[in-house]
């Protein structure tokens, strides 16, 4: 029931924010239609002096409106997940070049992969997206450069911890991205999973990164934990359920034997 309440509160927040976007969109439409009207009047009067200016205004507003709907669509689109047994250490290694290129030379990136890491049950391409997003957030928190550590670990969550962390008890592995950046005050940490919450300047942040990562992790049967200290840095950890498929298949009796009995 508590989870349901939380969910409905989240939906309400989405509704409010969607309403906000619709309002912005309407303002842009008003701007476009006003510019077109002025252009029309000038053309009828044969006075073309300001027509190009109105056109540029209308074009700019159109572009911004398109960007707005694009963002909204990207957010509302139901993510269909294709989970499978995934070696997260290998996934991280495969992303390292791309991550380094994305964060730039001022940010040092290192990995600490647990050697006996359990396989995860997760959609690998969604996890790649999430990892890149976390590294971009980390870079944005370190305008003067710094250090990113990408770390994997096996985690047993007992019933007590499970209640505390709002996830089922069981075996998980975690993928953590730590930075040496600005960190966040508790009131920001409390809001980072809300869609469209951002502290970044207009045009730089969508406020969708962490809310999408949260949705993806919950949908995968996992969780996202954040530890942040102002002035010291932030660690964001994605918990994913341990994949059991491989082990079950190994322990199953050989299929050939069963068939020959039948
Ligand atoms: P966006 O990055 O577009 O703002 P996110 O949902 O990814 O959207 O992040 C929301 C906010 O959370 C950011 O604007 C920032 O204030 C804060 N944040 C996220 N990651 C970090 C981090 N590693 N260090 C400091 N602040 C962060």
Which ranges are low-confidence, i.e. pLDDT below 50, for 5 or more consecutive residues? 247-262
Q: What share of residues are in beta strands?
A: 15-25%
Largest sheet composition: 5 strands, mixed
* Overall pLDDT level: 85
Written as H for each helix and E for each strand, in order along the chain, the element string is HHEHEEHEHEHHEEHH
Number of strands: 7
Instruction: Provide a count of the helices.
Output: 9
Determine the fraction of residues in helical runs and give it as a percent range. Answer: 40-55%
Question: Rg, please?
Answer: 24 Å
Could you give the distance between the termini? 48 Å
Class from helix and strand fractions:
alpha+beta
The general outline is: elongated
Listed once per kind, the bound small molecules are: adenosine-5'-diphosphate
Strand order of the largest sheet: 2-4-5-7-6
Structural features, described:
With 262 residues, the protein is of the alpha+beta class. Helices cover 53% and strands 19% of the residues. It contains 9 helices and 7 strands, in the order ααβαββαβαβααββαα. α1 (2-45) runs antiparallel to α2, α3 packs parallel to α4 (124-140) and α4 (124-140) runs antiparallel to α7 (209-219). Residues 247-262 have low confidence and may be disordered.
């Amino acid at each position: 029931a508590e989870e349901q309440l939380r969910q409905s509160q989240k939906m309400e927040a989405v509704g409010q924010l969607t309403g906000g976007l619709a309002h912005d969109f309407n303002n842009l439409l008003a701007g476009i239609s006003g510019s077109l009207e002025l252009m029309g009047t000038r053309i009828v009067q044969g006075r073309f002096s300001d027509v190009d200016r109105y056109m540029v205004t209308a074009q700019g507003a159109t572009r911004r409106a398109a960007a707005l709907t694009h963002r909204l669509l990207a957010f509302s689109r139901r993510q269909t997940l294709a989970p499978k047994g995934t070696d997260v250490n290998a996934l991280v290694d495969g992303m390292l070049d791309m991550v380094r290129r994305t964060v730039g030379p001022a940010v040092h990136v290192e990995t600490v992969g647990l050697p006996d890491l359990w396989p995860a049950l997760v959609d690998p391409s969604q996890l790649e997206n999430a990892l890149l997003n976390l590294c971009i957030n980390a870079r944005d928190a370190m305008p003067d450069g710094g250090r990113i550590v990408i770390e994997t670990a096996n985690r047993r969550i007992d019933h007590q911890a499970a209640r505390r962390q709002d996830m089922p008890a069981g075996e998980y592995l975690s993928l953590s991205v730590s930075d040496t950046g600005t960190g966040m005050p508790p009131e920001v940490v409390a809001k980072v999973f809300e869609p469209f919450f951002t502290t970044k300047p207009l045009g730089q942040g969508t406020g969708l990164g962490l809310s999408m990562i949260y949705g993806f992790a919950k949908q995968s049967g996992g969780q996202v934990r954040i530890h942040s200290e102002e002035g010291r840095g932030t660690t964001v950890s994605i918990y994913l359920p341990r994949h059991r498929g491989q082990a079950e298949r190994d322990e199953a009796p050989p299929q050939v034997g069963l068939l020959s009995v039948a």
